[in-house]
Amino acid sequence: MARWTAKEEEAAEWAERLFKKTSAPGRVVPEPATPEAVRAAIERFAELPTETGVMQDLAIGARRAAKGVSTDRLQGLSEVVQNAEDLGATEVRIQVREATLLVAHNGRPVLLTDVIPLSMPWLTSKAEDAEAIGRFGIGLMTLFHLSSTIEVHSGHYRLRIGESGLSLAPARVLPPALGGDEWTVFRVPLAEEPLTTSDVDDWLASWGNDALLFLRHVAAVVLLDAHGRTMRRLALRREAAERFKAEVAGQSVSVEVADVRDPVGLCWRVCHTVVASPPGLEPAAKAVGDTTPLAVALPLEPAGTAAPVSEARSGHVHVRLPVAPLALPVRVHAAFDPTPSRQGLQATAWNKALVPRLADLWGAAVTAQFRLAPASSWPMVPLPQRTSRQGQDEVVGALEAALLERARLQVSARLRIDVSTQGPQALEDLAVEAAELTGVLTEAEIERLTEHPALPYAARDSAGRYRQVLKDWSDHGAAKPVSVDVWDALELLGDEGRSLENAIELAAVGVASGWADHRLSSFAWLADERGTRHRPPESGELRIFADRPGSLAESLGFAHVLHPAFLADSPSPTCVRKWLAKRDALLTDGDELTALRRLASYGKVGMNAPTLQLTDEQLRDLQDAFARLDAPDRSRLGGDVGLAVALQAHRYASDGSRHEVWESPAKSYLPAGIDRVDRTESFAHAARNTPGLTWLRRRYSDVLRGTGAGMSPLSFLRLLGADTAPRIQLHRHREERLNRREVPVHAPGSPESRIAKMHALGAEYTLNDRETPDLDAVAHAIADEADGTVRCQRAIALIHVLGRAWAKRYSEHESVKAAYAYRSWNFVDTVPGFWLWRLKEIPWLDSESGNPTAPSVLRRRTEATAVVYGAEAEGLLHPEIQAAVGRRVDVLKALGIGGEPTTADIVGRLRRLREAEREGGSRDASGALLLYRALAAKTVPSRAPAGDLSRDDLRGAFAQGDGLVLTDAGWKTPSACLRGTPLFGRLRAFAPHFIGGEVLWQMLGVPEPSADDAIAVIRELVPSGTEAKRREPDAETQTVLLQSLQFLEDLASSNPEALKGSPLRRLPLWTSRGWTSRRPVYAVADEAVAALLGAALTESGSDAAVWRPGAEMEHFRGLIHRLGVTVVGPDDTAPHVSGRPLPDPHATARLVAAVAHLREDLQRNDPGTARELAGSWEELAGLLVCVEPGLTCTVTLPGQATLVHFPVETAIDTGQGVMYVRSASALARFSHAGRTLAGRFRARRREVACAWVAAWERAEAGLSAIDITRSEDRISALNEAADAEEEQRLAAFRDEVHERHTNARARTAGDARSGKRPADAQVRRAAYAPAQLKERHLVDPTELRPVFTDSAIVPQNDRSRSDASGSGSSGSSGRPSLSRPSSSSAVPQQRSGVKMFTPQDQEDAALALVRAALARDSEELRDLRAQRGVGADSVDELNRFYEVKSFLGAEEDSVSLTPHEYERATTEDDFFLVVVSGLQRGTGVPTTVRIVLDPLRKLSARPSGVVTLTGVRGCRSLQIPFEQAD
């Protein structure tokens, strides 16, 4: 049976011919007539590739490659539309339903010749069709993005195309909404790639109606929902418009124009033409005709939209359909070569040749559009900032650049704009105002200013893009209009014919420019309330404007009230008002501050301008206004306002006549009636009728009294600048030199002494120098005063005036720099200011003789001047003046009136004293002392002024020859004497000792006494000869000896290093056997016992002796052991009695009462001594008194077996609690019972012995004692009790730990015998398992064991808790809330990177050592570190908390607690601070665990953000050392 019928066989044969390309070119291929014939052809098409395996593999690979060409997964939809366009379709429909994408078009149905291009990638049937869009043959393959198979249904054709090849698709019933049998439908199953209708809708929305602009056939693309309803429709409506001629590539062409609108109203003007194809070039994979199409679409302003075209539309390059984005508001079409993905353009010569042709067409289209609708044409012109897009392809970039160039060179030169009555005008013949003048000038005004017609406002776009375009054209040399700038436009302000409103608008533009202040002030455009126009006030003018009547400025007569047009709330009047306000030319709401600013500004710059003469009423208004100002504004404005106004005043002429004048307060002085100082100390009294000075009328004191809200007339007038002291000013005769104006050496009026001094220095100028003309005038007037009494009074007044103002006005100008100018300013020295130099040289002060004298040659009479210069010296200041102005030291010193002699003068006088003594005169020690005191009071500089001595000079002067230090031993150099208290009497020379002398002698190099000095002096005190050494030293010797020993004791206490190496153990001492250097020498605190012991030793023939230092032994505590002296203490002394003496009840009762009185006396008057009692008062009062007439004392000398017996009057047996006395009377004696009882005190025994006598008298008188217990004693008792309790708790804790260690060792031994590993070791290993130990430097806790036998309770050092109170604060505003510890351990996890070891490793090791020290495992001592807010690192089974602090090396004395840790420590009775030290290998520090109970009470707390506890090393604690385990 035949496979096919003849018709089917024919169809299959043609299929094979088409596949193998064996038919003649151009031959018509017969179309199969029946469905069966079509099926036969399709089956044959499917078989042919399989006959050649390579061919089939190539086809499969090509299909797979083709589907990945585009990155847009819906690019296939664009390809179907393109296919429909090439087939003449007018509509394309798309539907997604039942997991299937359906795309249909009404173009030409599928033919047999279409099967191969449809099913084979990279094969196209359109290569020879120049008008067709398709060219690569991969369009349909891009649908493989969505599915592995694609079906095509068209007429009899049912194609199924898969990656493996072509096959016959099953018959389908397609939705009727897709058109009908004559429509071609592409069916894409979506099993692999999900796709929704919304996805397609979004894709079409991004495409937009604009995508269809250049299609010839397809007029609509419709998206249907699953029910066939239209969801989105892309469509355009075209309307033909008038053609125009254009020149493209040098060829005149006719351009067809169509206005195109989309359904939402967006409009384009599409200009289309055909031009000759670029010669010698052809597109890639496409036929080329003689001509090629070009088209541009210019966006037109949509009706009713506010958005400019440049913002509302995006540009694109089309090859019929969009291919590449364009950063310009235009769409263009040409027969470009797109990339295979159709997402860009290839950089081919063909494409590059089309670019200038498109640019020519675009330029012509835009030029034509300007003629039709110029306002809507500006947005079509490209700007450079919109043409730079990174990543764009080469052709698109060239196209953008070409369009920008055509706009600048072609459009700008060719466009014409119609102007009313004048016809079309070129751009260069038009005028445009500056942007800020938009809407402010009329077209007529623009033409008036430039003599060119204005660019009509109707020809400008509302968004102002035309200005950007014109600027770009101007910047690149293109045609441009004439410009009208703000400067030119402001000329119109002078046109009184313009309305006030227009003037305000224009002025506001000038204000906004920021530079037109002077131009604005050149025209009269500010109108007052009557309509009169005025120029705006300049800053130096007094005129001002106000927004309402009744202001201070109006009261003072310099304000206009603004016209209502300037007071409107609209922007321009507001801008003008702000400008006026900024210039302090506008008063708002009667603002007095602005009025005063204006007045001050006028005063500041109006040097010779007329001042405002004020009536009394105006002056009071001004005073009230100042009273209402803030203090800073008052002081800032007062002086300048004082220059702007004038008050009544008077001035004296040279002949003494008085003249009434008007003068500014800032140029006047206050009379004595207003200046509230003592009249005799006022400037008015000093000046009197000096010519040239102006004085305000005294009557202003009455005019201004009672007004000004408490501001006195004096305060107000001084605020206005009226002065009470001469003014100082920059020198008027400065010369210009090296960009500075400075005062030359020969300036007019320069004193001769100034000239000589500057010549000596080599200086030419003084810098920043001042003068005081009024002060000069007054000084000369005083010098000319004939009456000596009046002259002195006026001089006194002037010095007081200068003194009151010295610190604020004159002191900073007292001295100036002297310099010379050579290439630059070269500073040489400091000299007095010009004004001061003149004042020093005018003879206006009287001397003692009553003659007018220059201040520079006068000197005050003082003790030092009398000593140095003598009592009858010439040139002394008049005593009346000195007495009156003595407190004005700064003024007198500045005037050069010497109050004290110079350093050189004093040294000279000392030399004269020394020479006078050498020549036989008497020694003047008191005179020398006065000179030393004067010298000590001076500050001797390191660099002395001319004529005086520096420190080095002074040291040299004192060290020359015999020296200038006068001692009891004569004149000495500083190195040959000592400074300080003369301890050594006549044995050493001491510089005179006086208050303040220490600094002087130290500066001169006089040494302090040293230990060697004291030792040498003591040796010198020892006489020669045996008998002489035994004689009692005289009073002077004993005094020097005592002071020398006390000096050595002070060194031992304050500076023990000073005694190192001193031979004190062989130092001669005065003893009971005389002077001796031998030892032993004994020291006994009780003076009576010491005497008896010394006598006994002498009598026994012993070489030993008892030391007699000359004072109480307690004063030499630091020295005794250094001297090799052996102390005989209470333990070395015992009473000796015969038999059993009976107690004396009466004496015992009296002793009890006397002890009570002694305690009361000391507690009241000397509590420090009371606290020196060794033992308790109860023990002292509990002594039993026994009378033993034969009482002796037995002394066991330390280091010897010898017992020494001698009789004593009193003795105490502390073991028996008995006080023995020879008789009851000894109880009342200072040297007997007083001394014995005082021996029970650690210090101040003499005071105790004296107090005992008084206590015994009170007891004998039967007086009752009061038991006084001071608060510090109670606190001490409480602390002692707490310390005892704490010590018991710590000892109990130590015993507990010891027991646990003992039990742990027993368990370990048992486990070892049984072969088991200790459970505790397992737990500890689990709790601390460091990784890579060899890379770490921490000790390994598993290799260490605690040595509990070496553990110890460290006693408390009181300094460690000197200010510990337990009341420290964590520094937080509130108490932190503590978390409860969980029942299980919470070991923190390591999160940081490891270097050598991490902080957590250190914490782990520390906690493991604590567990080992306490003999607890991880269950018995739980880890709490990962629990936030607990305030402790661990807790044991008894709920005792432990906070662990660790140190790699030695433990530090301070640790810090966080707020939570601090709160835990304050709220828990059992809180332990555990300090682990020695955690790092190789440091040499042993590993130790210190346990501190109740740390807040033991340690000093210093709160900040955390609480720092100090004193760890010195607090009572349990310390457990570790050793290396076996």
UniProtKB/TrEMBL annotation:
Membrane-crossing segments per the record: none
Ranges of Basic and acidic residues composition bias in the record: 1294-1323, 1333-1343
NCBIfam families for this protein: P_loop_sacsin
Superkingdom, natural source: Bacteria
Organism per entry: Streptomyces lividans TK24
Protein name: Protein NO VEIN C-terminal domain-containing protein
Biased composition (Low complexity): 1363-1386
Gene3D superfamilies referenced in this protein's UniProt entry, alphabetically: Histidine kinase-like ATPase, C-terminal domain
